[in-house]
């Protein structure tokens, strides 16, 4: 475990202390768990992105077929 000093607005610090007391925990634990969740979400997103980008690209249409004209798509 590593200790970290943070700076909070007084109103935020007061709210956090009350919330922590109501939930039988500490402000430190709340912040630690919140940051851990964020780290895991970021890691999951990065892994999903890497997995998606590692796949070969799929063509949107057959090679000999042309894309539709814009006016056809939007009926203009």
Task: Describe what this molecule looks like in 3D.
The structure is a single chain. With 76 residues, the chain is mainly α. The protein has one domain (10-74). It has helices spanning 10-22, 27-54, 70-74. It is elongated, with a radius of gyration of 25 Å. The model has no long low-confidence stretch (mean pLDDT 92).
**Percentage of residues assigned to helices:** 55-70%
Assembly state here?
single chain
General shape: elongated
Number of domains: 1
The assigned structural class equals mainly alpha
Instruction: Summarize the main sheet.
Output: none
Write down the Rg.
25 Å
In N-to-C order, the SSE pattern is: HHH
User: Uncertain segments of ≥5 residues (pLDDT<50)?
Assistant: none
Provide tags for this entry.
76 residues; mainly alpha; 61% helix; elongated
Fold topology:
Blueprint: H1 10-22, H2 27-54, H3 70-74
Outline of the structure:
This protein is an all-alpha fold.
């Amino acid at each position: 475990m590593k200790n970290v000093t943070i700076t909070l607005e007084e109103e935020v610090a007061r709210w956090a202390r009350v919330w922590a007391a109501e939930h039988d925990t500490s402000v430190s634990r709340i912040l630690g768990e919140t940051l851990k969740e964020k780290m895991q979400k970021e890691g999951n997103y990065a892994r999903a992105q890497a997995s998606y980008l590692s796949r070969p690209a799929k063509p949107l249409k057959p090679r000999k077929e042309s894309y539709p004209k814009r006016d056809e798509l939007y009926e203009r």
